[in-house]
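Aim 2, interim progress. The first record below pairs a target sequence with its structure tokens.
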Amino acid sequence: MTEITLYHFLVISSLLFSLGLYAMITRRNSILILMGVELMLNAANINFVAFSHFGNFGASGHLSALVIIVLAAAEAAIALAIVLNIYRTFNTVNADEADKLKE
């Protein structure tokens, strides 16, 4: 039986971050872009908690992860309100059509 090390957490975190970045770059739907941002924030949370556990830094990594979770919830609420407003105005949630807001 193998022991789970910091390397395993870093691999999972980098895969999660890469999937989030891919979702942000390739998607046109605003909701899917927000999901990519959330994946990237969760990858950062995994890193904070893993470094806190394996580096014996105490609870500082856990507290940082908690702050990121609170900020992600606030970001999701505000971003969804913006997406709903864009949908009411343009009847679409595609991010490339939101540039009409400049006018």
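The second target in this work package is listed in the same format:
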Amino acid sequence: MIATLTGNVLLTGLDRAVIDVGGVGYEVFLSTDGVSRLPEKNSQVFLHIHTHVREDAIILYGFLEVEEKELFLILKTVSGVGPKLGLAILSGMKVADLCQAIAGEDISRLTTLQGVGKRTAERLCVELKDKVGHLHGALEGREGVAAKAATLFPAAGSAVADTLSALVNLGYPDPVARQALTAVKKRVGVESFTAMPVEELIRETLRMLA
């Protein structure tokens, strides 16, 4: 069974992508949120994979986070919820929100999801409310760590610190300036970002803020 894929994004569609792994294109089905968060064409991506085997086909379902894959597998344990409906459910709500709705037995919220009627929503709550709490907690913890990691704290006297100071003096709020600098860093890469002189950093950051 294929458990993960690392390759380049070759094509994307509404509910799927083709990932080029060593010259072989793997068609992978994803939630709409997953498709929207894929990197640009020809960029590398790592996906957690669930391999669904049928008599007439082998279908790959892909997830950017292991928690999304785990929730997908948990959803499939509910009577009447197959892979297609499971993916549709994940397309309609973020993992943390879905876990919260199930744990809180929020039937009205769950029935807004495509393909989920009142009876299915009730089954989701009854069968899964005690199985999704750990996922919600793991996501909250990881998001907190990610938020800290994304915050830019430049060393005093560095070109980045001088650029941040210049942007604040130009009237940009400190958090906005830090976010723009972080976006520049992500776009050009850590090595190029670190080597940029102040003038170039200011120019690139202002372009992000335009």
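Residues 4-63 form a domain with the OB fold (Dihydrolipoamide Acetyltransferase, E2P) fold (CATH 2.40.50.140). This observation will shape the mutagenesis plan for the next reporting period.
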